[in-house]
Write a structure and sequence with these properties.
The protein is mainly alpha-helical. The chain is 73% helix and 0% strand. It has 14 helices and no strands. Helix 1 runs antiparallel to helix 2, helix 6 packs antiparallel against helix 7 and helix 13 runs antiparallel to helix 14. The two termini are 38 Å apart.
Length: 253
């Protein structure tokens, strides 16, 4: 690039910092971060890349300092910033610190927890036998209108099964079916085993029948906007109207 007198843009800097950070080459990542600042780039993705680089080598205090600077200079943070930190804190088994960051997110406008955030926190609590905390976060999520995904249901149902709370597990499983989410076979196998073990064979049979009906039911185009809009997406794409294609796609997600 230097040879042809081409200057890197923000995307190139972000890519470099991300790549170097993913390989643990923090000093080089910092070098390109400072170069990006000298070029006048203060975009959130560049800061996020630096935070990720710090977190990968477990330098969380440095990551928090970058977070503080982002707040001070008005360049974020956004939900992705916090999700990066949360992901690495959870991997490092720093549960209390992760929950503290989650609470901080919940109180800030513009960086509220989204479905990925809730999935990480709920899965974290379920994996560490703190199911009541997972259910508390679940309720908060529902109140904010965030719909649970299959991974959340699996974490909670498996967690309830591990504590032999079979009736509660059934409630979440049935909610999952009602939402049209088709569970993996292993999930029902775990639930069925707990129900049989606790003397609830009839309930296991009843839920198994509901699951089978869902599996045999074709996806309803009237209830699933993705299938209704698929021809529109294809038409926009084939006519190279990519801006409209992405708009429609984002609308139905």
């Amino acid at each position: 690039m230097k040879k042809f007198n081409c200057k890197p843009n923000a995307h190139i800097f972000c890519t470099l910092i991300n790549g170097l950070g993913s390989e643990g080459r923090l000093d080089e990542a910092l070098k390109y971060f400072h170069l990006s600042k000298n070029e006048g780039f203060v975009e959130i993705p560049i800061y996020n890349a630096l935070i990720g680089a710090y977190c990968r080598v477990l330098r969380f205090e440095d990551a928090f300092n970058v977070l503080k600077k982002m707040n001070q200079n008005g360049s974020g943070p956004n939900t992705r910033t916090y999700d990066i930190i949360l992901n690495h804190l959870i991997k490092d088994n720093q549960l209390n610190q992760a929950f503290k960051i989650f609470r901080e997110m919940s109180e800030k406008t513009g960086s509220e927890p989204q479905i990925n955030t809730y999935t990480m926190i709920i899965s974290m609590f379920c994996a560490n036998k703190r199911l009541d905390m997972a259910l508390k976060v679940w309720e908060e999520m529902n109140k904010k209108g965030v719909a649970p995904c299959m991974h959340m249901f699996c974490s909670v149902i498996n967690g309830l099964c591990s504590e032999n709370r079979s009736e509660e597990a059934c409630e979440y499983f049935e909610e999952m079916l009602e939402k049209g989410i088709r569970p993996p076979s292993r999930l029902f196998g775990n639930l069925k085993a707990v129900l049989i073990r606790t003397g609830k064979k009839e309930l296991a049979f009843e839920i198994g029948c509901k699951l089978e009906r869902l599996r045999r039911t074709p996806l309803n185009e009237k209830k699933n906007p993705i299938y209704c809009l698929h021809p529109l997406l294809k038409s926009c794409y084939m006519s190279f109207k990519l801006n409209i294609t992405f708009f429609v796609y984002a609308t139905i997600l």
